[in-house]
What we know:
Layout: H1 3-9, H2 16-30, H3 32-43, H4 53-66, E1 72-76, H5 83-98, E2 103-108, H6 111-125, H7 128-134, E3 140-145, E4 149-152, E5 157-162, E6 174-178, H8 189-201, E7 214-219, H9 227-233, E8 239-242, E9 251-254, E10 261-264, H10 277-287, H11 289-295, E11 314-316, E12 319-320, E13 325-331, E14 343-351, E15 354-363, H12 367-380, E16 386-390, H13 395-402, E17 409-412, H14 418-430, E18 434-437, H15 444-454, H16 462-475, E19 488-489
Helix pairs in contact: 2-3, 3-5, 4-5, 5-6, 10-11, 14-16
Amino acid sequence: MSKYWESYINSSQFDPGTLLKGIRRERAERSLSEFIQQSWPIIEPGTTYIPNWHIDLICEYLHAVRDGEIKRLVINIPPRHMKSINVTVCFPCWAWTQAPEKRFIKVSYSDSLSRKHNVLSRDIIQSPWYTENWGDIVKLKDDVNRQNEFKNTHQGMMFSTSVGGALTGEGGDIIIVDDPQNPAQANSETERQNTIDFFKNTLQTRLNDPKNGAIIIVMQRLHEMDLTGYVLAENLGYEHLCLPAEAEKKTIITFPKSGKQLIREEGDILNPQRYDKESLAGLKKSMGSLQYSGQMQQRPAPADGNVFKKAWLQHYYTTAPHCNMIIQSWDLAFKNSDGSAKVAGYVVGRSGPNIYVFDLVNDKMSFTQSVKAIRDMTAKWPKARAKVVEDKANGPAVMDVLDKEIPGMVPYNPRGSKEERAISVTPYFEAGNVFFPDPNTASWVADLQKDLLMFPKGVYKDTVDALVQAVLYLMDKPSQTGPPAEAVAGGMSSYWRGK
């Protein structure tokens, strides 16, 4: 209790009702979690408020944002866990009780959704509860009081818009991005890129003070390269709070303001008062494992993989057996661009029914760099007789350059889509016929296997496509072709992937 209330109790004007209101006001000012609980009847009338630790955790992160301790924050959390109420609706109202001059910009995938959040914030501010407690600090201006934009007399502002919406002339101290992409369009590469472009080229520039302003992204995961995937991959300095519906491993969570710790054991449910194991199992069945993994688990690919399953990935830990045929397999991009397309080149061998992956090169390359990469791989692996090159993109031009220099240049014209070709080789993986080096001795194996498990939802498809091409080519050949090549020690591979 503050010294003010201690002196008030001892005064002749002491009134228990006034004291209780004052204490409740002070508690709400100090704690966003308490503020949300007190404002609940305004937001969800007739609904019982059910507290949970994840609300307190999110509130502490937002408290740190308000205090300038965190300036970039990503929160990934399943739907129906109060993310919008906590972050987009209540947090700005609470921040105004201490800093009414703050200007907020709120962005969602649709104008109607962001407007809905803004209206709820205004409902709180105009409520008798808020007016009675902070009406002396926060007064809305009559001349700027619309659903998508309202201001107070301290020039504080709450402005809402959609991804791609107008922001000309608007600036904010705190930008909140809440569900920037419609889940129904999760598989649209165009929509994902439009969202990222808007964030990168427009929204980030709207901070009044780029050094001290804050950006909060709160969303469910939809794809490896959704907005969360982009900001994390680009290492933009975002604090990342990830809260899956079910803990997939033991996790120690530290609250950023209080310092208290909470342990989530494997299998722990994020909000057991809302979901139990049976209801989550039903959701997984109805949504499908891929959607459930992203939206509920915040991991936009099932743990066991999409097309390729984790249990299918085999390793050789010492030396691979003698191979009857060793080849190179190349997927060549058009140019060294800023996109995600890269050159992928393998050395792969076959021994009887089994395929052994020996080496991988994977990077963004120009035409001349691609030519050099094949020359280098040929010098390193002279027994890789066939150089199988996809007959697309830079493939034909590279082959024209190397055809008279390097023997065994073989054009390969794939049939069907990348996904169809990948599915066609899954029986070999499932049967345990495809082997990779020990990840502890070949550092590139972990990245490659991640690409396989993420396919076709992942960023990098070139590594998968070139490997599928190698498997198709080798399995089309008789199992005993030509003299045995050589045994190869696992882990002697060289690898690079440009970031």
